[in-house]
Amino acid sequence: MEATLLRHPRFCSVQVMDELEEGAGPKWVRTTVELNDHIIVPNLDPTAMLIEPDRTLEDYLSSLSTLPMDHSHPLWEFHVLDFPTSEAVAALAFHAHHSLGDGTSLLSLLVAFAGSSKVLPTTAPRRISTIKALSPRSTSSAATGAVAVFTMWIMSLLLLVWHTVVDIVCFVATDASIPRDPPTLFKGADGVEFRPKHFVNRRLSLEDIKYVKSVMCCTVNDVLLGVTSTALSRYYFQKTGESDKRNIKTLACMMKSGKDNGVKWGNQLGYMLLPFHIEKHDDPLKYAEKATRVAHRKKSSMKSVFTNWSALVIKKIFGIKATASLCYALFKNTTILFSNMVGPTEQVALYDHPILYIGPSICGQPHALTIHYQSYMNIVKLVLAIDEAQLQNVDDLLEDFIESLTLIREAASGKPRVAEECSQEEHRHGET
């Protein structure tokens, strides 16, 4: 750790206020790091670890969600939970303040810290296309083709501008509490950010997700949106007994990578408002189809770039408190926080201990339900952060996610795969 983690300035610094400069914000200052203060081996009940190891792990992680961090030393900790669970022989919980970095930064740091020879890509890899030899065309046909291409480019640009303007207006209105999600089963109640979160996870098959992707001619993220919409709809109608449709807004977190696939450290975040339609469909693929249409519409917008840029501008002009206030208002007026990250495609090890899964999540936001998807090797880890006081049937909700992917996969099995068209689609939109 001394040779790797502590070389990064954020992990050996604390935030302090410059009292000599009026109105100055916090700044990072180097400090001496005592590793014993950051490596914690809790003393847990041996009987609980033996009888209910999974629940013991979940309860301990839940306790971390309300545990205040000591701001007198760098805001990170490693909690070593050295007892076997149903998935691994031990667990390592990395508890860090979000000011240290976003998910892409921290995940890339984990891969580097684990000593992997693989570099985690933070942007979609560019595809190498095969150019076929074309027969010479006449001057008139070439001119006509050039005009058609230019016209399509202009139309695409105008559509991008229009979608961006509409999304920005909706984003500002949501932040100003003009349109806010109505109270529903999933909407966080007042003070939910101060209550402990229960962190649960399940494995999803990446192969099943990719199969649906090839049938639907979409991206992995589109399939996950469809699975989420299906699961939320199933859970909602089962628990409420209602039959009316509902629309809820989900705040999707978009990671902005640095140049040349290098990770630009910090919180390079942008946000996107996604509508989740709570409704019933006889065909499970309808959920994926609707999610794909919504995702394609959102991709033709620069909204996530705008939210990232506007946050930097507001922070520079009005300070960090104004930025935090606007961010809190946006979280408060939406129902769910949704995030999806790409992880290593090959297994990494931590000091010769193979890492079997990675399950990121967050706490402190005013949401009763936060959904994270994390791919790693051939699995996708579904991680839910749940306010148990509001959503008490955690296992039922998890099973709805598992069953939703199964139903969508089975429905897709009877349809032909269109891999060539999907390859072209991914080239246009990028794989997520």
Q: List the domain count as a whole number.
A: 2
Reported by name, the CATH topology of the largest domain is: Chloramphenicol Acetyltransferase
| Form type | globular
Elements, N to C (H/E): EEEHHEEHHEHHEEHHHEEEEEHH
CATH architecture call of the largest domain? 2-Layer Sandwich
- Strand tally is 13
CATH level-4 homologous superfamily of the largest domain: Nonribosomal peptide synthetase, condensation domain
Largest sheet: 6 strands, mixed
Q: Span between N and C termini?
A: 32 Å
The poorly predicted ranges are: 116-135, 255-262, 425-432
Report the sheet-strand fraction: 15-25%
Structural class: alpha/beta
- Per CATH, the class of the largest domain reads Alpha Beta
Q: Give the helix proportion (percent range).
A: 25-40%
Tell me the strand order in the biggest sheet.
Answer: 6-13-12-9-7-8
Average pLDDT over all residues = 81
Output the radius of gyration. Answer: 23 Å
Tally of separate helices: 11
